[in-house]
């Protein structure tokens, strides 16, 4: 625990109140936080793909790289800010014919070619997750990440 | 409603599908998450992404939080990690600023409070004292203002300072804020 005198605590409380009024959290940010609650315990049986540390530098092309691994591996590069494009590679012993890209308000399914490549454009900005589905197997998914 | 419940109780209720409990958790902590993102100099759009990602991760990891009593620390750490990822992607560098800003100098990174937020002389005085602190102080005090019980290590992690530095920084920042509030107040009384 941190230690503060009563005067410190009073000043910090006063400052918190003032910051709250002077620099409030935008309403849409709070609304998105509340909406996230809809996902609680919704996917307890999914298999998670772990995110690899962001070791790869951003490439000169401006693409942002993300890598996930587990039952399958997904390497993905994102470009664009307002409208995001994801191009990636699925590596797995199992054959996946599609990747599902989910964002908080929707999702889209994109085909994976025979070499494991996929490419999807015009995604809304904000957090996304990637899902791999195959009949008879649990869904494999990445956690939410900002692409 | 759920306002009298502890964070531990709220987490348990939220995990059992109580949407009111989740809203109360958001109400208690959304300022902290937002402040952590902003303290990394993210723009509003990126800070909004970080905030949303943090709450989505919490929703899905709710059952696996090891120390529910330390939720504020968990949120701080998660928001920090997501902020750093976004920062790295945006190819910006966090430049810690240790240069003191002299009292009276305005700092363009400090938002001006909305007029409606400043309710009187005391508010104006406190805002001026806070806005003229060095950036690192504003980050540290901004987090402490919402979560005074964060440990020094947790605050240090959130703002990128070692435990040794954060101890000195916290004490120095609080002392400076107290002193500036006092001196500004005395100055105004003298002028008035």
From TrEMBL, chain A:
Top-level taxon: Bacteria
Name of the molecule in the record: Uncharacterized protein
Species annotation: Herbihabitans rhizosphaerae
Automatic annotation (TrEMBL), chain B:
Single biological process term from Gene Ontology: DNA-templated transcription initiation
Pfam families in alphabetical order: Sigma70_r2
InterPro entries (alphabetical): RNA_pol_sigma-70-like, RNA_pol_sigma-70_dom, RNA_pol_sigma70_r2, RNA_pol_sigma_r2, RNA_pol_sigma_r3/r4-like, WH-like_DNA-bd_sf
GO molecular function: DNA binding; sigma factor activity
Keywords, in A-Z order: DNA-binding, Sigma factor, Transcription, Transcription regulation
Keyword Oxidoreductase: no
Region (Disordered): 97-117
Residues in RNA polymerase sigma-70 region domain copies: 25-92
Protein name (Swiss-Prot/TrEMBL): RNA polymerase sigma factor (Sigma-70 family)
Species in which this protein is naturally found: Herbihabitans rhizosphaerae
């Amino acid at each position: 625990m941190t230690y503060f005198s009563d005067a410190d605590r009073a000043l910090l409380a006063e400052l918190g109140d003032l910051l709250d009024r002077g620099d409030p959290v935008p309403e849409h940010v709070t609304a998105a936080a509340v909406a996230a609650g809809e996902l609680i315990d919704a996917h307890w049986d999914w298999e998670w793909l772990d995110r690899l540390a962001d070791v790869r530098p951003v490439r000169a092309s401006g693409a942002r790289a993300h890598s996930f691994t587990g039952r399958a591996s997904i390497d993905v590069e994102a470009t664009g800010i307002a409208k995001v494009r994801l191009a990636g590679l699925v590596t797995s012993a199992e054959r996946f014919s599609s990747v599902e890209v989910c964002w908080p308000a929707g999702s889209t399914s994109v085909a994976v070619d025979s070499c494991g490549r996929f490419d999807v454009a015009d995604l809304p900005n904000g957090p996304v997750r990637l899902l791999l589905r195959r009949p008879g197997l649990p869904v494999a998914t990445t956690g939410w990440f900002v692409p | 409603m759920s306002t009298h419940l502890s964070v531990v109780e709220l987490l348990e209720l939220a995990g059992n599908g109580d949407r009111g409990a989740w809203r109360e958790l958001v109400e208690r902590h959304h300022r902290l998450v937002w402040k952590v993102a902003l303290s990394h100099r993210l723009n509003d759009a990126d800070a909004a992404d970080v905030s949303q990602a943090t709450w989505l991760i919490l929703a899905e990891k709710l059952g696996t939080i090891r120390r529910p009593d330390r939720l504020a620390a968990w949120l701080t750490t998660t928001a920090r990690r997501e902020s750093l990822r976004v920062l790295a992607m945006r190819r910006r560098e966090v430049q810690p600023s240790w240069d003191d800003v002299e009292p009276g100098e305005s700092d363009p990174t400090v938002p001006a409070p909305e007029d409606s937020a400043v309710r009187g002389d005391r508010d104006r005085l406190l805002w001026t004292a806070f806005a003229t602190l060095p950036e690192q102080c504003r980050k540290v005090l901004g987090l402490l203002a919402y979560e005074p019980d964060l440990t020094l290590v947790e605050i240090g992690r959130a703002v990128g300072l070692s435990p040794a530095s954060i101890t000195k920084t916290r004490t120095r920042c609080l002392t400076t804020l107290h002193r500036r509030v006092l001196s500004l107040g005395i100055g105004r009384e003298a002028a008035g």
